[in-house]
Design a protein that fits this description.
Number of domains: 3
CATH topology of the largest domain: Rhopdopsin 7-helix transmembrane proteins
Structural class: mainly alpha
Shape: globular
Number of strands: 3
Distance between the termini: 116 Å
Order of helices and strands: HHHHHEEHHHHEHHHHHH
Strand content: under 5%
CATH class of the largest domain: Mainly Alpha
């Protein structure tokens, strides 16, 4: 009997956990972003395994198994470490004895969270090599997974660190809730002055930290007790003894796996989708999420459906955060091109005037600017009024010699009768 739901559940969980990621990236919350990314990596790992080893235990994609199992082991410590960072930050925010954070405090917090959520997981993965007795194992439908030799060093380096982090997270979470309840009278003024987060974000973050803590503690302690009970005497022999068959890859079809062991493995597998759904429930229906969903819908209506979702509103600010505002850029680029064209044409016109005298090419000006005709009309309307000359004045002015009156064209002129 196979497990056809593993692949679609993993894919849906990965999509759900990635939905709230953009606005947390903008907020630069390292611990929360790390939680989403590590869960996405774990879901991707489950999805690929379920596809490649559906109904088989063939040895394939060995490099992928080396990389993916290492990332999965790192994620087992990265998730409780991220929960610890979240709870620690929330406790500091609500602490009555802590002054408002300055730039140095924020920088130190970011460095601490990067170390705990990124660097420490890979150090943990390197230490686990002490107890890893096989390169990896392959289970039918579940794919490749890590193999460790059960001994006291394994319990210390593999099982204890997540439990310790979960306990510390529980302490910080309790302090955060306690201090928040003590300062509930100053609740509205607490967040803007301390960290800029809203009360809704605070409660969702503390819920995420508590959920991760309970899941890590409950699951790790259950597996640890089961392993100790089933392994009998746990002794460490030597490094050479444990790593003798390191390069031997073991394969386990469903027929040779006991139902109780398969139930435990499926329970281990289900932890990641459950945490992913919890993250989406906590952050997929908040104020930031709803605002982002509205932007998605407006973009779909404008670009795909070719209609305006809100006819009474302008389109500015309605694009999702991951989409380049190409229409605005195109309009701005068009304006720059038109301005550049007009400027270049005007410069050429000034050069021609300086070269050929005071000639004005009216037709060129009309071609450069479509609004020239309206400008000329306005200019004529602003000229001072000149009364018409009587007959004697016209005869008197006929003796004046006008060399050339430029009208249009490079050298057109009219000679007066007096010159002839």
């Amino acid at each position: 009997m196979g497990h056809p739901a593993l692949a679609p559940v993993s894919f849906i969980s990965m999509a759900l956990v990635l939905i709230p990621l953009p606005w947390h990236l903008r907020a630069r919350n390292v611990a929360t972003v790390s939680t989403f990314l590590w869960l996405a990596v774990c879901n991707l790992y489950h999805f690929v395994n379920a596809v490649l080893w559906k109904g088989n235990v063939d040895i394939r994609a060995e490099v992928y198994c080396d990389i993916s199992t290492s990332l999965y082991v790192a994620a087992t410590i990265a998730l409780p470490a991220a929960a610890l960072c979240i709870a620690r930050h929330l406790a500091n925010v609500s602490s009555p004895n802590r002054p408002p954070p300055n730039l140095k405090d924020k920088r130190n917090r970011i460095i601490f969270e990067i170390v705990m959520c990124v660097i420490f997981p890979f150090v943990y993965r390197a230490v686990v090599l002490i107890s890893q007795n096989h390169r990896f194992l392959i289970f039918e439908d579940l794919g490749c997974t890590i193999s460790v030799y059960i001994s006291w060093p394994t319990i210390i380096v593999f099982y204890f660190p997540p439990v310790v982090l979960a306990l510390v997270t529980a302490v910080y979470s309790g302090l955060a809730v306690r201090w928040l309840m003590q300062r509930r009278a100053q609740f509205r003024d607490l967040f803007p002055s301390a960290s800029g987060m809203s009360s809704s974000t605070y409660f969702r973050l503390i819920a995420l930290a508590i959920t991760t803590t309970l899941g890590t503690l409950g699951f790790t302690l259950y597996v640890l007790i089961r392993v100790i009970a089933s392994s009998g005497a746990i002794v460490w022999v030597s490094w050479d003894f444990i790593h003798t068959d390191y390069w031997h890859i073991l394969q386990f079809p469903t027929a040779v796996v006991s139902p109780s062991r398969m139930a435990v493995m499926l329970a281990m597998w289900s932890v990641v989708p459950i945490q992913s759904c919890a993250c989406f429930v906590f952050f997929g229906f908040g104020e930031e999420a709803m605002a982002e969903y509205r932007k998605y819908w407006r973009w779909v209506c404008r670009v795909i459906l070719r209609r305006d979702a809100n006819p009474g509103q302008s389109s500015g600010g309605n694009l999702p955060s991951f989409i380049l505002r190409s229409s605005k850029v195109s309009r701005d680029h068009h304006k720059v091109e038109m301005s550049t064209t007009v400027s270049r044409a005007a410069k050429r016109q000034r050069d021609d005037d300086s070269l050929f005298g005071d000639r004005l090419d009216v037709e060129a000006a009309k071609d450069v600017s479509p609004s020239y005709a309206s400008f000329e009309t306005r200019s004529q309307s602003l000229r001072p009024y000149t009364p018409p000359l009587d007959r004697d004045s016209q005869i008197e002015s006929a003796g004046v010699s006008v060399r050339s009156i430029h009208v249009s064209g490079p050298s057109s002129s009219v000679e007066s009768e007096g010159e002839k």
